[in-house]
UniProtKB/TrEMBL annotation:
<dbReference type="GO" id="GO:0003735">
    <property type="term" value="F:structural constituent of ribosome"/>
</dbReference>
<dbReference type="GO" id="GO:0009507">
    <property type="term" value="C:chloroplast"/>
</dbReference>
<dbReference type="GO" id="GO:0006412">
    <property type="term" value="P:translation"/>
</dbReference>
<dbReference type="InterPro" id="IPR018260">
    <property type="entry name" value="Ribosomal_uL22_CS"/>
</dbReference>
<keyword id="KW-0687">Ribonucleoprotein</keyword>
<keyword id="KW-0694">RNA-binding</keyword>
<keyword id="KW-0150">Chloroplast</keyword>
<dbReference type="InterPro" id="IPR005727">
    <property type="entry name" value="Ribosomal_uL22_bac/chlpt-type"/>
</dbReference>
<comment type="function">
    <text>The globular domain of the protein is located near the polypeptide exit tunnel on the outside of the subunit, while an extended beta-hairpin is found that lines the wall of the exit tunnel in the center of the 70S ribosome.</text>
</comment>
<dbReference type="GO" id="GO:0015934">
    <property type="term" value="C:large ribosomal subunit"/>
</dbReference>
<protein>
    <recommendedName>
        <fullName>Large ribosomal subunit protein uL22c</fullName>
    </recommendedName>
</protein>
<dbReference type="InterPro" id="IPR036394">
    <property type="entry name" value="Ribosomal_uL22_sf"/>
</dbReference>
<keyword id="KW-0699">rRNA-binding</keyword>
<dbReference type="InterPro" id="IPR001063">
    <property type="entry name" value="Ribosomal_uL22"/>
</dbReference>
<keyword id="KW-0689">Ribosomal protein</keyword>
<comment type="similarity">
    <text>Belongs to the universal ribosomal protein uL22 family.</text>
</comment>
<comment type="subunit">
    <text>Part of the 50S ribosomal subunit.</text>
</comment>
Length: 149
């Protein structure tokens, strides 16, 4: 049985994005729990290829919030962000002496859930922000090295 979503949760789902799961998770871990505007700034400045499809999903989820529920974009935070493994595309590359090698192109599914926090006045500070987020959230940095590719 599926959980019923609250009235202030808005989601966007990107499927079959041609990218490895660990590369997308590296970016997702940095934006989880942040405000909409802060997330867009972070994604524009990060040097990873995974940022663009995630940026589009965040933007799409915010547009869904404004159009479908009439919520303000300034009051949204990234409530849940998860990356799951998709199917692997397989191609054969011809090699010498009539042989062939398999080329595997992994895909992933990215789910972004934004939540309206206009009800919570004291959300602004980091200490208070942790009260409103689920227990499995990691607000601190995941320890990833920025120059790692």
């Amino acid at each position: 049985m599926r959980k019923k979503k609250s009235l202030t949760e808005i989601s966007a789902l990107g499927q079959y994005i041609p990218m490895a799961v660990h590369k997308a998770r590296r970016v997702i871990d940095q934006i989880r729990g942040r405000s909409y505007k802060e997330t867009l700034m972070i994604l524009e400045l990060m040097p990873y290829r995974a940022c663009y499809p995630i940026f589009k999903l965040i933007y799409s989820a915010a547009a869904n919030a404004k159009h479908n529920k009439g919520l303000e974009k300034d009051d949204l935070i990234v409530w849940k962000a998860e990356v799951n493994k998709g199917t692997t595309r397989k191609k054969l590359k011809p090699r010498a002496r009539g042989r062939s090698y398999m080329i595997k192109r992994p895909t992933c599914h990215i789910t972004i859930v934004l939540k309206d926090i206009s009800d919570y006045e004291t959300y602004e500070t980091l200490n208070n922000r942790e009260k409103y987020l689920p227990r499995n959230f990691r607000l601190k940095s995941s320890g990833a090295v920025w120059d790692k590719k």
